[in-house]
């Protein structure tokens, strides 16, 4: 049976029409599922008995099963979930002065093979469906409902490459953005890609308000290919051309993510190369101190190197921030909790 959470409101409306029902019932359903967070068809009191029966004959409501939950001293919460077919995935909920943001996973494992990242230690097993991405948010929101708090921002920056699962990720965006449901503004949603050019082009043509972030990490092809094998397929010239295309079609600000790894990409000349590369793009750089992963052997840049890099970008008139680390007392680096669990290691609560 299909998971009802996999459907956008439009998809549900056409399904209803195909089954001789009125399309507006999709609006009611959305409101039950995402506004009231009622997951039992029987309890949806403004739907007729026949409609409820039709829905329960064709759909199941598949939420995720919680396996573990860790709470950091700074309020960051990490959920470890199991899918219906027994696969593990992670979701991180973060508190900020502006509210709550959630970092969702888009695939089980990842095939991009970035050399510094824990996610790729386990190859991709499958894509998550749109409903499985939605369910991560619903679960965390249900948790927050107890204290009447609301998730206001979403980053698709968990395990997986969103543009390697394009349709499901975009359906997820449509579902959570929908005003009949959660109504999370597109400007509050960010998709982060390692740089799959076809995906960037498709996304550019959608002309949505959803933010686009690019994991850059290396300011030249040699260094970037060393860190991110995807750069062999889409070298910087092609990546930058696709981003210029994005900017020509969308009046939006691009974000570049740049992790700072000691002695690898954190020298002043790298900051200069980065500034040259993105100079005329009115972009924003998010500098992220590397979160060490046992197996990888890379180290976090020293505080002084981080500051020197930041200062150089500022001096070069590049807008940037140095990300504050969150959840460092729990296994909050991408894929760490899942990787540990899968290796059967002990993990602290
Ligand atoms: N595949 C997408 C989204 C998932 S990774 C992408 O590449 O953008 C989300 C971000 O976390 C990326 O910028 C990634 O490079 C970064 N990242 C991965 N491992 C990290 C680590 N150990 N420390 C800091 N950032 C890391």
How many extended strands? 14
CATH third-tier fold name of the largest domain? TIM Barrel
Biggest sheet details: 10 strands, mixed
Global structural class: alpha/beta
Count of the domains: 2
Determine the CATH superfamily of the largest domain. Aldolase class I
Q: Count of helices?
A: 12
Rough outline:
globular
Biggest sheet, spatial arrangement of strands? 3-4-5-6-9-10-11-12-13-14
Commentary on this structure:
This protein has twelve helices and 14 strands. The strands form three sheets. A ten-stranded mixed beta sheet has the order 3-4-5-6-9-10-11-12-13-14, sandwiched between helices. It folds into two domains: 2-60, DNA polymerase, domain 1, CATH 1.10.150; 65-344, TIM Barrel (Alpha-Beta Barrel), CATH 3.20.20.70. α1 packs across α2, α4 (130-145) packs parallel to α5 (166-177) and α6 (197-206) packs parallel to α9 (236-249). It has 349 residues and is of the alpha/beta class. S-adenosyl-L-homocysteine is lined by residues 112, 114, 116-117, 157, 161, 192-194, 215, 257, 259, 288, 290-291, 293, 333-334. Residues 112, 114, 116-117, 157, 161, 192-194, 215, 257, 259, 288, 290-291, 293, 333-334 line the site of S-adenosyl-L-homocysteine.
């Amino acid at each position: 049976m299909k998971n009802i959470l996999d459907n956008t409101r439009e998809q549900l409306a056409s399904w209803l029409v195909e089954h001789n029902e009125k399309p507006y019932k999709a609006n009611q359903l959305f409101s039950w599922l995402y506004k009231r967070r009622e997951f039992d068809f029987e309890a949806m009191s403004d739907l007729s008995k026949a409609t409820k029966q039709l829905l329960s004959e064709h759909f199941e409501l598949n939420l995720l099963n919680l396996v573990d939950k860790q709470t950091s001293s700074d309020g960051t919460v990490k959920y470890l979930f199991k899918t219906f077919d027994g696969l593990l995935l992670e979701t991180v909920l973060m508190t900020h002065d502006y509210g709550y943001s959630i970092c969702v996973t888009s695939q089980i494992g990842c095939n991009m093979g970035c050399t510094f990242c824990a996610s790729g230690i386990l190859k991709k097993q499958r894509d998550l469906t749109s409903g499985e991405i939605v369910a991560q948010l619903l679960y965390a929101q249900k948790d927050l409902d107890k204290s009447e708090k609301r998730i206001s921002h979403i980053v698709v920056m968990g395990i997986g490459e969103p543009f390697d699962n394009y349709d499901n990720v975009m359906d997820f965006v449509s579902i959570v953005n929908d005003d009949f449901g959660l109504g999370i503004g597109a400007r509050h949603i960010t998709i982060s890609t390692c740089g799959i050019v076809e995906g960037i082009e498709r996304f550019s043509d959608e002309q949505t308000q959803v933010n686009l972030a690019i994991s850059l990490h290396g300011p030249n092809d040699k260094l970037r290919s060393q860190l991110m094998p995807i750069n062999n397929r889409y070298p910087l010239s092609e990546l930058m051309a696709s981003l210029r295309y994005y900017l020509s079609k969308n009046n939006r600000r691009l974000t570049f993510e740049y992790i700072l790894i000691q002695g690898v990409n954190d020298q002043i000349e790298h900051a200069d190369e980065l500034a040259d590369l993105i100079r005329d793009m009115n972009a924003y750089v998010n500098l992220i101190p590397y979160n060490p992963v046992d197996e990888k052997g890379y180290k976090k840049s020293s505080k002084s190197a981080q500051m020197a890099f930041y200062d150089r970008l500022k001096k070069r008139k590049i807008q940037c921030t140095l990300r504050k680390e969150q959840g460092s007392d729990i296994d909050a680096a991408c894929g760490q909790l899942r990787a540990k669990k899968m290796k059967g290691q002990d993990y602290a609560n």
